[in-house]
Structure formats: C-alpha cells, structure tokens
C-alpha cells in the first residue's frame, strides 16, 4: 500500500483522473490523497468479471492521466490474459497514459493459467509501473515490504519522496526479502499448490449451500459471492452471516454489487469447511423464516 501511495502521489497532480476497472481493491483513498479523481469502469459478473478494454477506453477524457489495474484482481480473482493486457497498454499508448498495476497476487494462479505482467508490452509503450508485495507469496506481511518497477525517472522521483517520508526500509527486513527472493522456494511452492483445491472446496460449498454459484476465480485467494438470498440490504446480509460466524467485506466497499461479499480461502481446510457449513446454515435459517 505504501508503494502504491508513493507512486500515485508522485505521478499524479490535482485534477487528474485515474481510470479504474471495478470491482477492485480499496484504491479510492489513495487516488484522492494524490489530489486526483477515480473514474470507475464496472465489469459484469455474467462476463466472469472480465475487464472490457472498449469500456475502459470510452472512459478516457482530456483529464485522464493513468489506468490503474489490480492484476490478478482483488476481490474477483479475475486474471487478464496477454491479449487483454496488450489492449490496455495500447489504449494507454493512444492516449498517452500511464499504466499502473498492483500485482501483489501474481504467484497465485490456477487451472494452468499464467500471470501476464504489463512490462511484457513495454515495447509498445514504456510508461508502465508495477507495484508488488512480499506480503502474500513470501509471507512477510508483518515487515511491510514490496517493490516498484518503473521507468528510471519515476524511480528517482519515488526515492526522493521516500527519503522524506521514511528515509529507508529497515536493513533486517531488506536482508530477509533478498533471502526470500533468491533462496529456495520448495515450501512456498508446496503451500501455493494447495490453493486451487481450497478454491474448489469453497466454490463447491457455496453452490451446495443454496447460494448462487460464484464465478470461480482464476487467481488470488478470494472471490465475490452473491448473498442476496440472505438479506434485503448489505446490513441484513452482514447480520445473517455474522450470526453464523462469518465475517466478510461488503462488495460495495470494493465497488462491487451491494448484494455481494468478498470471501477468502487462504485458511486451512478445517476452517474452510466451517465457512461453507456456516453458509449452509445461514441459507437454511433464512429459508425457515416465516
């Protein structure tokens, strides 16, 4: 988050607009802190929450400065393919925009799919920035480390800004980060290999519970679930889920439909089993109401 905040405050100026496909992670405050305004471009659940380049380009105005992606997408688990990323870069080139991509979940991909970085298309348009984190795959969340890939002038400007905010990152976390990036990954890869089965356990459990079968995420550790059956408002849905031991993030907080919630599936299988059992109990309780 700090890396993305640094980038946005460095490359944006008051009055700029940032085009953001939604649903998406909580970027709103970061964009507004920079003095810019987000322009949200909704994706459709019926399309698998896929990014639509044509709708993205239609949102460009003379004040547009950047396109901000979340790749893979949090909260939907949508993973854009190479053709989609290339189309976004081409839009940026036509309108002279930056492409800024938060790729914190890049290692978590399923069903033989591959993560596609925007840098793969730097020959089409070089004004690309990627922010990523060691909190997810490398499990270094408590040390708050990440890194930014960007053209040299942006990196230089980021370094100058960081020096006034934090001087530098701690030496011990930096050494740990180097060890994580360059050392053996057997245990990490083993842990990662369990996530597809966890995804399937939760998605199958949701469908069996009586809720609408969700779009099965192609990446990440989260998904959006239509919980409209559980209440007439987001507050009703929250209360129903909490009564059955389930804490979520409202979809509306991530620019998704307010009938939806974000669930995560990174826990062990016992906890995930309790999650799907709780969803089934919630559905039965609602069905039993007079």
TrEMBL record:
How far does the signal peptide extend, from start to end residue?
Answer: none
Task: Note the superkingdom of the native organism.
Answer: Bacteria
Name the Pfam families for this protein: Aminotran_1_2
The protein's UniProt keywords, in alphabetical order, are: Aminotransferase, Pyridoxal phosphate, Transferase
Statement: the UniProt record of this protein carries the keyword Transferase: yes
Please provide the Gene Ontology terms (biological process) for this protein.
amino acid metabolic process
Q: Which cofactor does it need?
A: pyridoxal 5'-phosphate
Recorded GO molecular functions are:
pyridoxal phosphate binding; transaminase activity
Kindly indicate whether the keyword Membrane belongs to this entry. Answer: no
Aminotransferase class I/classII large domain location: 5-277
Family stated for the protein in its record: Belongs to the class-I pyridoxal-phosphate-dependent aminotransferase family.
Q: What is this protein called?
A: Aminotransferase
């Amino acid at each position: 988050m700090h890396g993305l905040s640094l980038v946005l405050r460095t490359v944006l100026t008051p009055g700029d607009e940032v085009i953001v496909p939604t649903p998406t992670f909580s970027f709103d405050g970061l964009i507004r802190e920079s003095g810019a305004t987000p322009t949200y471009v909704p994706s459709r659940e019926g399309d698998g929450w896929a990014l639509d380049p044509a709708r993205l380009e239609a949102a460009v105005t003379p004040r547009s400065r950047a396109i901000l992606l979340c790749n893979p997408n949090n909260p939907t688990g949508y993973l854009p393919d190479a053709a989609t990323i290339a189309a976004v870069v081409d839009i940026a080139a036509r309108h002279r925009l930056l492409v800024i991509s938060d790729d914190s979940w890049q290692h978590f991909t399923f069903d033989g799919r591959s993560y596609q970085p925007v840098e793969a298309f730097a020959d089409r348009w070089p004004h690309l920035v990627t922010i990523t984190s060691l909190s997810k795959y490398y499990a270094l969340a408590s040390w708050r480390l990440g890194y930014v890939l960007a053209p040299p002038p942006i990196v230089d400007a980021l370094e100058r800004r960081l020096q006034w905010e934090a001087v530098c990152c701690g030496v011990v976390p930096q050494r740990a980060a180097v060890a994580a990036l360059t050392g053996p990954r057997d245990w990490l890869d083993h842990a990662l290999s369990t996530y597809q089965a966890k995804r399937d356990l939760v998605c199958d459990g949701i469908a069996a519970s009586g809720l609408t079968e969700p779009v099965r995420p192609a990446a990440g550790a989260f998904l959006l679930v239509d919980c409209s059956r559980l209440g007439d408002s987001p507050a009703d849905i929250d209360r129903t889920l909490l009564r059955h031991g389930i804490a979520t993030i409202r979809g509306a907080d991530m620019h998704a439909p307010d009938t939806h919630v974000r669930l995560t599936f990174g826990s062990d299988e016992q906890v995930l089993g309790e999650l799907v059992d709780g969803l089934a109990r919630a559905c039965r309780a609602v069905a039993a109401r007079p």
